[in-house]
Design the sequence.
């Protein structure tokens, strides 16, 4: 992957969703077929031999590459959503975010003990949502849980929020202020 080439296409949105935040908008990559292909192919190459049976995409940007990865890996796709969006019986978990509390849900029959699970989201910043997703999935005692992000903002040191046995891989690691002019 050509990191510098990919970063030039990344849109930075200052003060979103609140003052002082430098939001890294990966939808600018999703709109570019070359970038989207590069992202999906690079992540697939990393995970192709790890026996993944389920990819859990976190709402909503985690659905885009998560679904592509599931198809490429021959795995099932499990959406992890905000409350009230899933039609069947579900499990949920509440977690603390940088600006309050939130909750995520998934169908209760999504994961079994034989699964090797990859949790995918676009961005790892403070780690609240994704570490909560891993904790919710671990309630089902799968063989293994891994977490993947397109971007990891390293200045937050959020890997510390995850259980030690969760393997984490980020395609692009950067400081939050990188790309801010």
Sequence:
């Amino acid at each position: 992957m050509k990191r510098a080439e990919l970063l030039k296409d990344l849109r930075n949105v200052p003060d979103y969703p609140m003052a002082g935040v430098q939001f890294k908008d990966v939808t600018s990559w999703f709109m570019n077929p070359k970038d989207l292909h590069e992202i999906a192919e690079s992540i697939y190459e990393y995970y192709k031999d790890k026996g993944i049976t389920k990819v859990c995409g976190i709402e909503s940007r985690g659905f885009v590459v998560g679904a592509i990865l599931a198809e490429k890996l021959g795995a099932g796709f499990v959406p992890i959503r905000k409350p009230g969006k899933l039609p069947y019986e579900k499990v949920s978990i509440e977690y603390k975010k940088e600006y309050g509390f939130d909750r995520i849900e998934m169908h209760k029959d999504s994961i079994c003990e034989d699964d090797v699970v990859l949790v995918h989201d676009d961005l790892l910043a403070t780690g609240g949502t994704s570490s909560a997703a891993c904790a919710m999935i671990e309630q089902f005692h799968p063989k293994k849980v891994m977490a993947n992000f397109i971007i990891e903002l390293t200045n937050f040191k959020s890997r510390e929020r995850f259980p030690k046995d969760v393997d984490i891989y980020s395609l692009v690691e950067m400081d939050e202020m990188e790309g801010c002019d």
In short: The beta strands are 11-14, 22-25, 54-58, 76-80, 90-97, 100-107, 116-124, 144-153, 167-174. The helical segments are 3-8, 27-30, 33-47, 61-73, 128-138.
